[in-house]
Amino acid sequence: LSNSSNFAVQQLNSKAVKPKNNSLLSKFSSALSNKIKLCQRVFITTFVPVFGVALLSLIVLQDSYQRYKNMSLVVGVNDVIKQVNNVSHSLQVERGLSSGLTSENSPDFTKKLTEHRLITDQVIKPFLSLISNDVEPLVGESIQLHSEFNLSDFNGLAIYRLQLDNKPVNFFQTYQAYT
Predict the structure, then answer these.
(1) How far apart are CA 61 and CA 67, in angstroms?
(2) Which residues of 5-23 are buried (b: 16+ CB within 10 A; e: fewer)?
């Protein structure tokens, strides 16, 4: 009886359908495990995450550098905006004093205008220095592309000042000189 039961178990085992995994991943996995040594598989398993982290670090580093460049451009533009604000305010005050001088021709306006011209000149010098030397190259290119600013405009201011000092100038000429 025991021989017959062993025989029956053997027949069942031989007839049992062993499920075969025919998926592409299992074929690829078994092919790799047969062709690649264990030490090489361990190396690949540890190298892939290290490579991924290194690649991610380079991407983060490049992004940080781009943010740094963008912030330095913003700071450069901000410096130019401050200087333009100072120059335009000073020129507006000088234009007002020049208009007052042309309408009244009083010594009080002459004195205030002379004092404020010195202030305007002191404000223009750092602005011109900033534009020509100290500003980021991209900011300087942007200013040249998108503005009607020209250094000859400040030379025209000096010529207008001489005309105002030497002879009376009408309001329209004053307005044109400062705008």
Answers:
(1) 10
(2) eeeeeeeeeeeeeeeeeee
Separation between Cα atoms, residue 171 and residue 103, nearest integer Å:
8
pLDDT digits over 22-43, tens only? Answer: 788 888 888 878 888 888 888 8
Tell me the pTM. 0.58
Q: Are 80 and 132 in contact (CB under 8 A)?
A: no
Distance from C-alpha of 1 to C-alpha of 14, rounded to nearest angstrom: 20
For 117, other C-beta atoms within 10 Å of its C-beta total 18
Q: For residue 36, give the 3-state DSSP assignment.
A: coil
Q: Residue 47 has what pLDDT? A: 92
Q: How far apart are CA 162 and CA 106, in angstroms?
A: 17
Cα angle for residues 150, 99, 149 (degrees, 5° grid): 10
Amino acid of residue 89: H
Alpha helices by DSSP H, the chain: 2-15, 24-35, 38-104, 107-129, 137-146, 151-166, 171-178
